[in-house]
Write a structure and sequence with these properties.
Helix content: 40-55%
Number of helices: 6
Structural class: alpha/beta
CATH superfamily of the largest domain: Metalloproteases ("zincins"), catalytic domain
Length: 189
């Protein structure tokens, strides 16, 4: 096997095997809109990679279901094409940030509202807070969680125990909300 080869495997579907000089072990990944990819180390024959995939049928089936569900949500969201007005987003999120900062005694430097692909928000070393405008598509409790999360970063720059203790003082359900937020995929919204 040289480079890349795609095989149709009964009960699984299309699987792309990629020869990788960096791979130390056979590794399966299932990604939205890319399907099943298998990284194969240089010295491993295709036959062994096929056997490995066969041995992981249950794992693959389980993950394929969640990826398919995700793909359906992404397609549905793209069709609805709910664009967010940047000026409205800036006004609403800045106002919410100011209100929460005042209520809980936090101070920040600047705020920016952006369309980001990988982050809901961030806080710089200079306490500049950046928020993703897609936050507006989330339930109110998650919007508040994200903003408070970034405000606590003005005091604690990492996710240490002290950070979580401070956040949970003002938002006791913070860890549960963090788990709930992970169910919302940013580029679906």
């Amino acid at each position: 096997m040289a480079g890349q080869i795609t095989e149709q495997i009964e009960g699984i579907g299309s699987v792309t095997f990629i020869r990788s000089a960096r791979a130390k072990h056979i590794r399966i990944s299932i990604k939205p809109f890319r399907g099943i990819q298998v990284s194969v180390p240089p010295a491993v024959p295709l036959r062994k990679a096929l056997q490995f995939v066969d041995s992981k049928r249950n794992w693959i089936s389980k993950h394929l279901l969640s990826v398919k569900k995700y793909e359906e949500q992404a397609i549905k969201a793209k069709k609805s094409n709910n664009n967010i007005d940047p000026l409205l987003a800036k006004k609403q999120l800045t106002s919410h940030l100011q209100e929460l900062a005042k209520r809980f005694g936090f101070r920040y430097n600047k705020v920016s509202i952006r369309s980001q692909k990988t982050r809901w928000g961030s806080c710089s070393q200079n306490n500049n807070i950046s928020l993703n405008h897609k936050i507006l598509r989330l339930p109110d409790k998650l919007q508040e969680y994200i903003i408070l999360h970034e405000l606590v970063h003005t005091c604690y720059k990492d996710h240490s125990i002290k950070f979580w203790q401070e956040l949970e003082k003002i938002l006791p359900q913070a860890r549960q909300l963090n788990k709930e937020l992970k169910k919302h995929h940013m580029y679906i919204l």
